[in-house]
Amino acid sequence: MRTTTPSFIVTLPLKTTSSDEVVLDKMFSAGKNLYNACLGEAQRRYYLMNQSKEYQAACKMPKGKPHKKGEKRDPEAESRAAAFREVNNRFEFNEYSISEYATGIRDSWIKDHLYSHMGQTLSKRAFKAVQKKAFGIAKRVRFKNHIRSIECKNNLNGLIFRDNILSVSGLKLEAIIDPENEYQEYGLTHRIKYCRLVRKNINGKPRYYVQLILEGTPHQNSDHPVGTEEVGLDVGPSTIAYVGDSRAELKQFCEEIVPDWKATRRLQRKMDRSRRATNPENYSENGTVKTGSKVWRKSKRYRELQQQYAETNRKLADHRKSLHGKLANDILSIGNKIQTEKISYRGWQKMYGRSVTVRAPSMIVSLIQRKAENAHGYLHEIPTQTTALSQTCHMCGTKVKKPMKQRWHKCCDIEMQRDLYSAFLAKCVDKQTDTLDIAKTNALWPGAEPLLSDAMSRVELRHSQSATCGNPVPASFGLRRSQSGSYQEPEKTVAKVADGVTQPGESCEEAIVTAGIPRL
After folding, report:
1. Could you tell me which of 10, 14, 13 has the C-alpha nearest to residue 173?
2. Which range is least confidently modeled, 72-76, 230-234, 430-434?
3. 221 with 371: CB under 8 angstroms?
4. What's the first-to-final CA gap in the chain, in angstroms?
5. Could you give the angle at which helices 490-499 and 438-466 cross, rounded to 10 degrees?
């Protein structure tokens, strides 16, 4: 059995000329054609297998008891797995068969631009995409107009990085290395497992990078120390609460990002009008797209708008990634033993599409998990069916389902913000049994209650100060409640009170100070 060792990635930009970019563009074009061919063949074999009686009989077999990775399956689960392996081999629906198909496809003009290892990794990627559909993880597969990366299996063939030079297709591409970058200096001292060539479009121009997959653990920045406490997380579509033994916080994901939705929508309408004007034959009289195969022509104006739209999304993604990294480092500074509820992020995409598009809660959770494991910790996901933390009171043990608009937990003389309280309970869940440890919760609550209250006070202060700058207060924070039970922004509430004490010629801000109305 092949041994596995820890890995990390260092990305280096490459110096390329216009002639180099022509060669690399042909390589990526060949890779796209090979990937789409393998994807279509894998999908054809899956459809044939899916219609067979053997496959349908295997699907009806009992699944057996669930087991964890590394544990032995029970007889029912083992017999079911054996039936699936047999039908997969019969219809040649496996990674090795698709790799053999890619070898035959590569024996053409593609052979002049792609090495064998590149074709094998692309065929594996195509098979994994169809396999997700077979497992029910994905609903469909997508053929690609372009691919963003090509990789090999080792640092000996195809993509070879030595002495800060990447050798590929007869080219010698020099990597740009920052001598003051500690992360790059640390990574270049480790053994290279394999390389990955990445292409990005920045302002409409291609930029090429090499990703070195290195053996070992990533560099730990001295400016971001890792704590050793236990931390509980409560993740929402746009907010996150985390509670440790010494600190608690309630924040909004990427609150610095304020997308201009009106400008985005205007740009999308421009693209739609340009496409309709260039392809009138693809639309019916009522304005809908005709069914069947179509050929879409893209005008020069449409390509410019498409490039502008892609650049806007790229900047947003890079900014979000940077903010997520800062937030993950902040959480890891408290502790590397993290627990949170297991959530269906795909369901959130359907319910809170716009918020999830900007905040990306699944991305921050996976980033925290990777950083925690690199720091010799863990991120344990708790099944919500056994805990229901947002509905539970640790004092009396009762579970009361709360509507989404109810943002405060009130029970047994406890009045606490719902997300902060759920994060505290997540910290007290037993990792082995995935149940709430009542004894541990009662022991930690006296010390945790002032931490949660202080966290809520900081939230109120921070957002009362930022409200004057036009930043809206998330309703899920539950900062201010009116008599009707709805939530209001603190600045608007203070302004309403100030209207009753404002003197002639006196501004609202001056009236607040004169009357001594406290800020939230």
Report:
1. 14
2. 72-76
3. no
4. 61
5. 60
Q: What is the 3-state secondary structure (H, E, C) of 173-230?
A: EEECCCCCCHHHHHHCCCCEEEEEEEEEEECCEEEEEEEEEEECCCCCCCCCCCCCCE
CA-to-CA distance for 199 and 14, rounded, in angstroms?
10
pLDDT of 441 over the 60 cut: yes
- Cβ–Cβ under 8 Å, residues 402 and 418: yes
Residue type, 408: W
Using pLDDT thresholds of 50, 70 and 90, give the confidence band for residue 271. very high
Which pair of tokens denotes residue 461?
Answer: 């202060």
Ranges 130-134, 335-339, 467-471: which has the least confidence: 467-471
Distance separating alpha carbons of residues 139 and 346, to the nearest angstrom: 12
At 28 the three-state DSSP class reads: helix
- Closest alpha carbon to 237 in 357, 80, 400: 357
DSSP state of 489: -
CA 371/CA 8 separation, integer angstroms: 11
Residues 6+ apart with CB under 8 A from 28: 146, 147, 150, 199
Q: Which residues pair with 149 in a beta bridge?
A: 198
Residues 6 or more apart whose CB falls under 8 angstroms from that of 166 comprise: 14, 159, 160, 172, 173, 174, 175, 195, 197, 210
Angstrom distance (rounded) from CA 143 to CA 126: 9
Amino acid at position 346, single letter? R
Report whether pLDDT(19) > 60.
yes
Decide if pLDDT at 30 tops 90. Answer: yes
Contact 324, 254 (CB under 8 A): yes
- HEC states along 103-165? HHHHCCHHHHCCCHHHHHHHHHHHHHHHHHHHCCCCCCCCCCCCCCEEECCCCCCCCEEECCE
Q: The tokens of 87 are what?
A: 């039908």
Residue 68 pLDDT grade (very low, low, confident, very high; cuts 50, 70, 90): low
Is pLDDT above 60 for 506? Answer: no
Residues 6+ apart with CB under 8 A from 180: none
3-state helix, strand, coil in the chain (%, to 5): 50, 15, 35
- Cβ-in-10-Å burial (0-12, 13-18, 19+) of 244 comes to buried
Contact of 32 with 147, CB cutoff 8 Å: yes
- Round to whole Å and give the CA distance between 436 and 395: 12
Phi, psi of 325 (to 5 degrees): -65, -40
Q: How many residues does the chain have?
A: 520
pLDDT for res 338: 94
